[in-house]
Design goal:
Keywords: Oxidoreductase. There is one protein chain. By secondary structure, the protein is α/β, with parallel strands linked by helices. The protein folds into 2 domains: about 5-40 and about 200-265 and about 360-410, FAD/NAD(P)-binding domain, CATH 3.50.50; about 55-100 and about 130-195 and about 270-355, D-Amino Acid Oxidase, Chain A, domain 2 (2-Layer Sandwich). The chain is about 35% helix and about 25% strand. The longest helix is centred in the first third of the chain and has 28 residues, at about 100-125.
Length: about 400
C-alpha cells in the first residue's frame, strides 16, 4: 500500500485538513466529484462564528418548532415530501436538547470553537490569507425588550467562554454603529472580534492554491466504495482504484453515503440554506448582521451584500425552493430600508447536520485507517482549522489537543 493520505472532499473542511496533513509531512491527495469549493463552501455567509458556542439543540427548542413550521415566513421548514424521512433525526434532536445532554454538548461545542480560533490564528499567516478577511464584528439584533431579555442568558454564556461583547439598548446606539437599519430594532449585542471572509469560495480556492503550490494534488473523482485493506484503504472510483495509508472523509452532506460503503451508519441530515447575493453598492453594510428571531443574516461579500440563512430540512434530492430566498430578501428589504434588491443571484447550499449539533471527528468504527470529519452544520468554515488539527493528530497517532469522545462516531 502507498503511504499517501487521501482526503475525500474539496470543501473548506477537506482543503484545510489537507493543508494541515501536508504541513505534518504527509503526501496528500484530495478527491472530489465536482472540484474545489463546488458545493456548500462556495456560497455560505462567510462567517467565522466563534461566539456561537451554544449547540442548536437547546432545552425547550422543540416547543418552538411547531410555530416555526406553521409560519410560512419562519426560519424552519420541512418539505412534505421529506417529512417522514426526517422523523428519526428530529427524535434524536429532541433527545439531544434535554438538559442532561445539553451541558455535555455545550462543553464540546465550546472546546472545538476555542481550538478552531487558535488554529485559524496560526493558519492565516502560514497561508498569507489576511487580505481575505474582514474584521468588522457582528451585531445580533432584537425587536423588543422581551426578546432582548430572553437573549441575555446566552450572552452571559458567551462571556463565560471568553467571548467579548457589548450590549446596545437603544435604536440610537445601534444606528451609531450601523446606520440605515429600521428603528424596529431596539436592542442588540455586538461581538467585536467576529471575523468574515470577503468570499468563502475565494477563501477555499486560496487555501487550495497554497496546498497545490506545496505539491499537494487535487483530482476530480466520483467515489464509489471504500474497502479497508490489511495495511490501509482502497478507494474505488468510477474510473479506477486508489490505495492510501489513511483516508479522511470530509465530503460534507454527502459523507454518509460514502460511510455506508464501509457498513457504518451516521444519522446525517441536510439543512438546506438559501441566500441572495446583491451587487456592490446594494447597502452600506458596516458589519455582519444577524436577525435573531428571523433566522437569517446579512454579510458583506466582495463589496456586495449576501442575505441568507433559515433551515429547510429537505435532504439532497428535492429541487430547490427559491421562494425561501425570496422571503429572506423581502424581510431584509424591510429591515434595511434603501437596500437595492435588483440584480441578485440566488443560491442554495446543503449544510451537513447531525442531530446533536456536534460534528463527527474521529476514526471509523470499521477501520482505524479511515477518519471522519463531517457534520459541522452551519459552522464548517468556523470549525475548519480546529477540525484539521484534530484529524492531523489522529493520522499521526498523537494525543489530540482536546478530548475526541464527544465527537466520536460511536455516540450514535
Amino acid at each position: 500500500m502507498t503511504s499517501q493520505v487521501v482526503v475525500i472532499g474539496a470543501g473548506v473542511i477537506g482543503i484545510t485538513t489537507a493543508l494541515e496533513l501536508q504541513r505534518r509531512g504527509h503526501s496528500v491527495l484530495v478527491l472530489d466529484r465536482k472540484g474545489i469549493a463546488a458545493e456548500t463552501s462556495a456560497g455560505n455567509a462567510g462567517a467565522f462564528a466563534f461566539s456561537e458556542v451554544e449547540p442548536l439543540a437547546t432545552p425547550g427548542i422543540m416547543r418552538k418548532a411547531p410555530n416555526w413550521l406553521l409560519d410560512p415566513l419562519g426560519p424552519l421548514s420541512i418539505p412534505p415530501a421529506h417529512a417522514l424521512k426526517i422523523v428519526p433525526w428530529m427524535y434524536r434532536f429532541w433527545r439531544a436538547s434535554r438538559p442532561d445532554r445539553y451541558e455535555n454538548l455545550l462543553g464540546a461545542q465550546a472546546s472545538l470553537m476555542a481550538l478552531s480560533k487558535t488554529a485559524l490564528d496560526q493558519l492565516i499567516p502560514n497561508v498569507d490569507a489576511e487580505h481575505l478577511l474582514q474584521r468588522d464584528g457582528q451585531m445580533q439584533l432584537y425587536e423588543s425588550e422581551a426578546e432582548y431579555r430572553a437573549s441575555l442568558p446566552t450572552w452571559k454564556l458567551r462571556g463565560e467562554h471568553g467571548i467579548e461583547f457589548e450590549l446596545l439598548e437603544s435604536p440610537a446606539a445601534i444606528a451609531e454603529m450601523q446606520p440605515g437599519l429600521s428603528p424596529r430594532f431596539t436592542h442588540a449585542g455586538f461581538t467585536p472580534n467576529w471575523l468574515n471572509t470577503v468570499d468563502p469560495k475565494r477563501w477555499v480556492e486560496h487555501l487550495a492554491d497554497v496546498f497545490q503550490g506545496r505539491v499537494g494534488r487535487i483530482e476530480r473523482k466520483d467515489i464509489r466504495i471504500l474497502s479497508p485493506q490489511e495495511n490501509g484503504v482502497r478507494v474505488a472510483c468510477a474510473d479506477g482504484t486508489i490505495d492510501a495509508a489513511k483516508v479522511v472523509i470530509a465530503a460534507g452532506a454527502w459523507s454518509h453515503h460514502i460511510v455506508q460503503t464501509l457498513g457504518d451508519r451516521i444519522p446525517l441530515e441536510t439543512e438546506r440554506g438559501y441566500n441572495t447575493t446583491l451587487q456592490e453598492g446594494a447597502f452600506d453594510l458596516r458589519m455582519h448582521l444577524t436577525f435573531s428571531r428571523h433566522g437569517f443574516v446579512a454579510s458583506k461579500i466582495n463589496g456586495g451584500v449576501r442575505v441568507g440563512g433559515a433551515v429547510e430540512l429537505g435532504g439532497l434530492t428535492l429541487p430547490p425552493n427559491y421562494k425561501r430566498a425570496d422571503i429572506l430578501l423581502e424581510k431584509a428589504a424591510a429591515f434595511l430600508p434603501g437596500l437595492k434588491t435588483e440584480g441578485g443571484t440566488q443560491w442554495m447550499g446543503y449544510r451537513p447536520s447531525l442531530p446533536d449539533s456536534i460534528p463527527v471527528i474521529g476514526p471509523s468504527r470499521k477501520s482505524a485507517d479511515v477518519v471522519y470529519a463531517f457534520g459541522h452544520g452551519h459552522l464548517g468554515l468556523t470549525q475548519s482549522a480546529g477540525t484539521a488539527e484534530l484529524v492531523g493528530a489522529l493520522v499521526d497517532g498523537q494525543d489530540p489537543p482536546i478530548s475526541l469522545s464527544p465527537y466520536a462516531a460511536t455516540r450514535f
